[in-house]
Amino acid sequence: MRILLLSACLFVGGVAQAANDLPGGGIDAEALSRHVRLLASDDFEGRAPASAGEQRTVDYLVEQFKAAGVQPGGEQGGWTQAVPLVRAQVDGPVRATLHVGGKDQSLINGTDVTLQSLRPIDTVALKNAPLVFVGYGISAPERQWDDYKGVDLRGKIAVVLINDADFATPQPGAFDGKAVTYYGRWTYKYEEAARRGAAGVLIVHETAPAAYGWATVQSSGLSPLFDIERSDADARAQHVPVRGWMQRALAESLFQRAGLDFEQAKQRAQQRDFAPIALGDARLSVDFKLKRERVVTHNVVGKLTGSQHPDETVIFSAHWDAFGVGKADASGDTIRRGAVDNATGVASVLELARVFAAGPRPQRTLYFIALTAEEKGLLGANYYAAHPLAPLDKTVAVLNMEMFSPDGPTRDIASWGRGRVSLEGDLEQVAKARGRTYSPDPNLEAGFFYRADHFAFARMGVPAITAGPGLDMLDGGVAAGKALRDTYFAQCYHQPCDRWTPQWDASGHAADTTLVYDVGVALANNRQWPSWQDGSEFKAIRSKSDAARK
User: Fold this and answer.
1) What is the mean pLDDT of residues 46-69?
2) 235 and 309: one domain?
3) 99-118: per-residue pLDDT in tens?
4) Which of 29, 163, 275, 543 lies at a 20 to 30 A Cα distance from 152?
5) In this model, does residue 220 exceed pLDDT 90?
6) CB-CB contact of 199 with 212 (8 Å)
7) Are 497 and 529 part of one and the same domain?
8) Last residue of a domain, which of 229, 259, 292?
9) Helix, strand, or coil (residue 303)
10) Does one domain contain both 277 and 133?
């Protein structure tokens, strides 16, 4: 897209201009920090969807969009898009008993396992459901891989490994090496088992292939589940009766008592000829009540209508939600504030809205969307993608933003995952123009491409990326960046300590947001269309609507 970017240089006076020469004085680091401080304050109660914290968040975002000078972009001329969800929460105690090796073991929910359900039922009641190890739980005909081999899972619990077979092998195999495919995601494990009629799924937690520790699983597993509102029939088809995770130590004990070795079974699961393994006499009984209620949460939307091609849309997005109030940490703190994840991304959307509104009117329409319920499974983005406010076949690109650094500037910027999309090259080009570099995702094995809101749009064929911070710190280099990242994920990811502090340094956050502006202003002011590259699973989807963009 080099010609596109050169034309953008003329429009903005050259992409290599200093950031404070952008309209409105450029992306303001102090404003970014101020937005994060307010959104991650205790008053917002962790910004859980369908909570008092949501209302405060929506009010703040609308206020800031108005101040920025953008127009309402939501439904019926308003600032929001209603997203109807179902909230399902365990109501009361969870009774779970594992029978194996002739003995019963009571399981503690949140400690040994996490157990939940999105089925349209009031009570989850499984009695002596057999356990079957199905390896990675993947059926991928295009990769000549089938872990199920025709096993009948009706009435049974599938025990599944997280990630995919390539993670644990030294050489790339059927699944693109250590770069996680969608087959490695926990969401896929549940979906595939539901298609096969399983009574339940237990995913074995291991920190490295999951890319997060048990504390993250526990935090999510003890919180309410959310889903897009569906018919009862669709909900039954989409969801197993019981789903959750189990600690690796429990899995090792389970396999041993069933006369098997867990590590040997894992190694067998890394082969194409793997076949499901019945876990001896292992049976699981589960009983808990479920409270289900319909709730409505909201995407918040501002826009600038294009001067020449108003039907062509560029989207800037970030999710506003965090995890609300939950289990107390060691200090007694219960509010999971989501400062880095993802008040930083929302702050970028607000600043981009202000800067674009202060400049010349774009040729294409710009949407600035703060999406809801990302932490519940990309639900706000999925709902928008299914009910778009502007046609997806004329949506030029989605520039999503996540988890910018509070630790100062880096030499590089990164995007999440390996998307095989031209937008990655565009980000690299604008970074070079500003004397910086672009780094492909340094942590492909974490599967971040499938864990951010841009994925909801990519699945519909819309070129999309999520931009985030690089690791090459000006102070300390890559080693310092990796140390900061690893500490954050080990200690504060989805935890109460993800908070704003007086030491917050948003200078790198501002520099990264400026590069998103550079890509966005180019897209906003020409007729070119970003594209998926050969090898992308989304290229064929986008090509079906090519005629709309002629």
Assistant:
1) 97
2) no
3) 999 999 999 999 999 999 99
4) 163
5) no
6) no
7) yes
8) 292
9) strand
10) yes
Closest CA to 362 of 424, 301, 315: 315
Please tell me the distance from the alpha carbon of residue 255 to that of residue 387, in angstroms, as a whole number. Answer: 45
Q: Which contiguous run of DSSP H or E holds residue 325?
A: strand 324-325
What is the Cα–Cα distance from 386 to 388, expressed in whole angstroms? 6
* Residue of 187, 166, 115 lying closest to 451 (CA atoms): 187
Single out the residue of 87, 63, 254, 88 nearest to residue 157, CA to CA.
254
Which residue is associated with the tokens 């983005």? 381
Q: Are 260 and 277 in contact (CB under 8 A)?
A: yes
In angstroms, rounded to a whole number, what is the distance separating the alpha carbons of residues 17 and 82?
A: 39
Q: Are residues 421 and 506 in the same domain?
A: yes
CA distance 160 to 287: 21
What is the domain extent for residue 174?
88-292
What gap in Å lies between CA 89 and CA 200, rounded to an integer?
17
Structural domain includes residue 225: yes
CA distance 427 to 401: 13
Claim to verify: residue 502 and residue 417 sit in the same structural domain: yes
Query: Which is it for the CA torsion 37, 43, 48, 50, positive or negative?
Result: negative
Rounded to whole angstroms, the Cα distance separating 150 from 478 reads 47
Secondary structure letter of residue 475 according to DSSP: T
Instruction: Assess whether 156 and 19 both reside in one domain.
Output: no
Query: Which letter, b or e, does each residue of 483-509 get, where b requires 16 or more Cβ atoms within 10 Å of its Cβ?
Result: ebbeebbeebbbbbbbbbeeebbbbbb
pLDDT for 32 beyond 50? yes
pLDDT tens digit string along 401-452? Answer: 999 999 999 999 999 988 789 999 999 999 999 999 999 887 777 788 889 9
Specify whether 389 is located in the same domain as 525.
Answer: yes
For residues 245 and 110, what is the distance between their CA atoms, to the nearest angstrom? 9
Tell me how many domains the chain contains.
2
Do 108 and 253 lie in a common domain? Answer: yes
